[in-house]
Amino acid sequence: MPNEPKTQAKTPRVFSGIQPSGQLTIGNYLGAIRNWVAGQFKSDPIFCVVNQHAITVRIDPNELRRNTLHVAAAYIAAGIDPRHSIVFVQSDVTEHTELTWILNTITYYGELHRMTQFKDKTSKLKQDAISAGLLNYPVLMAADILLYQADQVPVGEDQKQHVELCRDIAIRFNHHFGETFVVPEPVIAKVGKRIMALDDPTRKMAKSSDNPGSYILLTDEPDTIRKKIRKAVTDSGSEVVYDPKHKPALANLLTIYSLFSDEEIPAVQERYVGKGYGAFKTDLAEAVVAGLAPLQARMAELMESAELTSVLTEGADRARVIARKTMDAVNDRVGMNWK
Ligand code: AMP
Ligand code: TRP
Fold it and tell me: Whose CA is nearest to atom 15 of ligand 1?
């Protein structure tokens, strides 16, 4: 109605998470965490260390514990403010697995089987080596998001398909049992949504790669970063130009440079006219080293302090209240409350 006062738009609830399956790479930082930080105060955000996802492939329990703290430290060191954002560990809120079971019953085998990540992770495995957990992983992810009634899910491009499946599951549940879940939107950054491997610009940079030269870890020493960038593959020719189709390796390095130096790609490109790859790579390494230095210092400090434990404990307490409310409604809708 034209004369009615506009209602104040609700602050969007944001939910996202990273698996503690290894140390984080600059791909995780540029594709995900940086964007969480940028949007943090315009939203009502929840950031989770999704350790139950990390056990879908074999991982040493002590390593998992270490990585869990490492990922939480990275969130905070990168600028997530735990006084505003909820930061917690997935297994501390048991509602995630509780909701997963219910959602499993309305998710189809065919849907899960078609997921690109599932196909990639299992293409070389025999059927008897593929755990049901790996297949069901997107259902756990849907539960993570739906429990908190998230409006937006900021992720890298590789996770878009999983968020879309989450939307389908939410719509299906609402249809069968009545309006229960907010249907979330994926939010994907324009630049940095897919940082590629340094040794192969056709693959995404991933912490699970066998070749440490393919990624830069948030915790890599300056000299390691310099060495990895020096060895990064480049394309034929010698001009520093942004041309993803013909020069995918350079396009990736220019993207990394631009994000770490907060400069637009054309401005960076301009500076290297007639200078060649060598000079560009040297400066890129320094931009990455300088960009990571404050983050690394803060991470080291957090890993040594009790602050992290109290942030995560308090975060789980805050998350649990929201999750329980949704779970009670879900149990009610499907008829689990028999009393
Ligand atoms: P993962 O490491 O698979 O748990 O991913 C955590 C988050 O980082 C997700 O939002 C991913 O989409 C994002 N991410 C992981 N690797 C990259 C990459 N190479 N480029 C951009 N985003 C990434
Ligand atoms: N599956 C995501 C990944 O591998 C991590 C994840 C788990 C996630 N639960 C989530 C991301 C919920 C966003 C929202 O990157």
Answer: 28
